[in-house]
Write a structure and sequence with these properties.
By secondary structure, the chain is mostly beta strands. The protein contains seven helices and 61 strands.
């Protein structure tokens, strides 16, 4: 381990082996731990660690009852258990070494008196003993830090661990081991912000009660934690787990919060990095040396905020049938039914719930919101996550008044009068008026009673004397916001790390950075083949193609656009507007299309092609009259019924003719030309003359011209690109340009259409023509947490690098964040997931890139596709 003489505490992990069991002493904490195992025939024993360099004391002239502290200290309190040592094994006569445990009977800053029983008579010693005497707590008590002497050379310190049974009897199983302390000069520079480093708090609360749990016990916050682990991920809800200790003094309110269903917010510095609810809290009582006032532990597991839905009803007005994208239905499901309920969509910022994707038929009922949400999630196959809709404010000079329980802000936006009522306000206490460094975390907090446009008033404030009168930050906890785990929007760039470099004051360091990017499997023209088991109308031949093998291939002719995080000059289809005919009778206005989930609207122009029962070819148009409906035919086929304004055929059309919509929806149309110029959708060419943006489905091109070109339906996710560059003349910086023509054909499925093959081809183009970055690193909390990197009051996690965020990791001295490699930013990464280790005060980060997320999301939002990128 390394010892920091300035702070007087260890900050890296050490391990002490005791009877072949490794016992880990936690970084940033004292050398006192407690654990359980089975040893020497005992049914349950407790390990307590005593470190001799804790506090030095001297004996008075015998006889005496006073334990004189060599330096003034308030570390010990009446009623606490302690043990005493001598490095010469010669304590003053009348005092015994461990496993004898004493109770503190009298405690001042300069001397103690000890007793063999709680509240018993003071022990009197009758000689001065010899050697140096030490005293430390016999139970895991965190209010204080061991301060071994500063070292300039490598030094060994002795740590002795004694095993004491649950009944208090001594066990022969004891062990002494050495902790090796290295001088600071040999260690990597630790984070320099002593007022922020190590400050992670767990805030547990309900509507009326709360407690802040830090890594040490403080006034009015009697619990402390160990073994904190928090995770965040792009493709699933994050998790949190930790152990909570009560070494004595915890109130009934604090203990009462250690149960399932209580709310949890985890704060690092000035940021809420995770929120959820307690799933289970398993309590254990460790009687240690008596049974009258046992020390308690809780092993706590937490789950996502999604579980809060179990207690919230569905809004009455929403108990209706919907035929809409799943995201839209979910947005209706999670609207609050009363002013006091949680609005899961967010109050000040809309959530990331996407309304793209196919329509589904679903009826919201008055039943449990959580059950319906899980049903919808299973229908769509999407992953979801939540985030707390929290806010951060800073108040100025003399704007906190403890007596009045008020905080005055410049402006409380965007919330109105009493918009914060019932919420919890946390004083971050990062800059103290009395210049006392706060290395603890959240200590003061209150429940908000009311607010005006500028003043927040609380019902009461725990530790109201701690917050400074001026220049402090407050966090106001909010309600959950529900998001898709995947989001196609360009991620926010957050900060730059330097790999494996000694830390400077303004430098975030990525330790043990590893780059596992894969360059081996690049294909610049993937081909995809499948087998059609039914004859399908082929617009190229103006004829039904016989059943058999069909092939689609797409070249990687365009460069990758880092700002757009997609191919240049390209987009992709977002909604299904085209399909195959189930039936269209002679002179009928009723057109039935195979399948559901069409984004066909009133007044759309449809191009209808196929063969009649008499064998004639048909190529005509019709106008949609009214909204389509969905039904199921007697043979089990799902059909969408479209009403036309007039009959358009003089004979019945046979099955599997083609309907092409004059309107096609794309993710973006900025790079697709008009008036008219050809674009390629999948393997076909089309030209449009108009464009627009629909309120429901987004941007589109319309005014389809040149009906001599192929007429085949295209599905959501299909690549669309302009013809500025071609396979023969690819764009500079494109995969074809960099790597040349590398072809490979994949066999994917039977009973397939060209449109489905195009989706496969698009996915292979994205996944094979680009190299995907993969890597990881770990960083200290202060490196990972950079104050105020995002705008003040932004709802998302300001300053904490969240899953999905974009960062740069510079691996060489000459690197910059915008360095390119094969057309991609080689040093920019998307955070796929992170894990906070509260013991070591580090965050381990899994890195990937936005392209992979884009590709995965296209798969999510594409119908008829079974392929999953792994």
């Amino acid at each position: 381990m390394y010892h920091d003489a300035d702070r007087g505490e260890p900050w890296m992990t050490i391990t002490v082996a005791v009877d072949a069991y490794p016992r880990q002493i936690m970084s940033g904490q004292t050398f006192r731990v407690i654990d359980k195992t089975v040893c020497s025939g005992e049914t349950e024993v407790s390990f307590a660690t005593y470190v001799r360099e804790d506090k030095v004391w001297t004996a008075s002239a015998a006889p005496s009852t006073q334990i004189n502290l060599a330096t003034a200290s308030t570390l010990f309190a009446v009623g606490e258990r302690v043990v005493v040592f001598s490095n010469a094994a010669d304590l003053p006569l009348g005092l015994l070494p461990p496993p004898t445990v004493y109770w503190v009977k009298t405690a001042t800053s300069t001397y103690l008196e000890l007793s063999l029983t709680s509240g018993g008579a003071a022990i009197q010693y009758t000689d001065a003993g010899s050697g140096t005497f030490y005293i430390c707590h016999a139970t895991p008590y965190q209010n204080g830090t061991i301060k071994p002497c500063a070292v300039t050379t490598t030094t060994d310190r002795s740590v002795t661990m004694y095993v004491v049974s649950s009944t208090g009897s001594a066990s022969a199983a004891t062990s002494s081991n050495l902790i090796r302390i290295y001088p600071a000069a040999t260690a990597a520079a630790k984070p320099t912000s002593t007022t922020i480093y190590g400050r992670v708090s767990i805030f547990v609360y309900d509507a009326t009660n709360a407690t802040a749990i830090n890594r040490m016990k403080t006034t009015d916050n009697n619990l402390f934690f160990q073994d904190l682990k928090v995770t965040g991920s792009m493709n699933k809800a994050g998790t949190a787990s930790f152990k909570v200790y009560n070494a004595g003094g915890a109130t009934a309110t604090e203990k009462g919060l250690m149960v399932a269903e209580k709310n949890v917010a985890i704060i690092s510095g000035r940021n809420v990095i995770w929120s959820g609810k307690i799933l289970r809290a398993i309590q254990g009582k460790m009687s240690l040396f008596d049974t009258a006032s046992p020390a308690c532990t809780w092993t706590v597991e937490c789950e996502s905020d999604i579980s809060k839905m179990r207690k919230q009803p569905v809004k009455a007005a929403n108990q209706i049938a919907y035929s809409a994208p799943a995201g839209y239905i979910v947005s209706k499901l999670v609207e609050n039914s009363a002013a006091t309920d949680i609005d899961w969509r967010g109050v000040t910022e809309t959530s990331f719930i996407g309304w793209e994707g196919p329509n589904i038929n679903y009826t919201l009922t008055s039943s449990d919101m959580y059950d319906q949400f899980m049903t919808l999630a299973n229908i769509t196959g999407y992953d979801w996550r939540t985030r707390n809709n929290w806010l951060k404010y800073q108040y100025g000079a003399s704007k906190y008044t403890a007596a009045a329980k008020t905080v005055e802000l410049t402006a409380i936006t965007p919330y109105g009068v009493n918009g914060f009522a019932g919420r919890w306000l946390l004083f971050v206490n990062s800059t103290n008026a009395d210049a006392t460094a706060n290395n603890v975390g959240i200590r003061a907090y209150g429940n908000i009673a009311s607010n005006t446009a500028t003043v927040i008033t609380m019902t009461s404030i725990t530790n109201s004397d701690i917050p400074p009168a001026s220049s402090d930050y407050v966090i106001i906890l909010g309600n959950p916001v529900l998001d898709f785990a995947s989001d196609l929007r360009q991620p926010d760039y957050q900060c730059t790390f330097t790999a494996n470099k000694a830390r400077a004051a303004a430098l975030q360091n990525a330790y043990e950075m590893n780059d596992k990017s894969d360059f081996k499997a690049i294909i610049t023209k993937p081909g995809v083949k499948g087998k059609s088991t039914i004859p399908l109308w082929d617009g190229n031949l103006n004829e039904y193609a016989p059943a058999g093998t069909i092939v689609v291939s797409l070249p990687a002719k365009d460069a990758w656009s880092n700002p757009e995080q997609y191919f240049s000059n390209s987009s992709f289809v977002t909604f299904k507007t085209e399909g195959f005919i189930y039936s269209l009778p002679d002179s009928s206005t009723t057109l039935k299309l195979i399948g559901w989930d069409y984004a066909i609207q009133n007044n759309d122009t449809l191009l209808i092609s196929g063969k009649t029962v008499a064998g004639g070819n048909v190529a005509t148009t019709g106008t949609v009259n009214g909204a389509p409906t969905e039904s199921t035919e007697a043979d089990g086929t799902l059909v969408t019924v479209v009403t036309l304004d007039a009959g358009v055929v003089a004979d019945d059309l046979i099955k599997y003719g083609v309907v092409i919509n004059d309107k096609t929806f794309f993710k973006s149309i900025a790079s697709l030309p008009l008036n008219p110029s050809y674009i390629r959708i999948g393997s076909d060419r089309r030209a449009y003359t108009g464009s627009g943006t629909d309120a429901v489905y987004g941007p589109y091109l319309n005014g389809l011209v040149d009906l001599t070109e192929p007429r085949r339906p295209h599905l959501p996710g299909c690549l669309a690109t302009n013809e500025t560059y071609s396979e023969a003349a690819p764009q500079t910086g494109s995969p074809l340009n960099y790597f040349g023509l590398i072809e490979s054909t994949f066999t994917v499925d039977t009973n397939i259409t060209y449109g489905e093959l195009e989706i496969y081809a698009t996915n292979y183009l994205l996944s094979k023509s680009l190299y995907y970055k993969k890597g990881g690193f770990w960083s200290f909390i202060y490196d990972w947490f950079k104050t105020d990197l995002r705008p003040t009051n932004q709802v998302t996690e300001a300053g904490w690098i969240i899953e999905g965020g974009l960062i740069a990791v510079l691996q060489n001295t000459a690197d910059t964040a915008t360095d390119l490699e094969y057309g991609q930013y080689k040093n920019q990464w998307q955070v796929l997931g992170w894990t906070l280790d509260g013991n070591q005060m580090t965050v381990t980060c899994e890195l990937g890139d936005f392209e992979r997320n884009t590709n995965t999301l296209i798969n999510d939002k594409t119908t008829g596709i079974n392929y999953t990128i792994t």
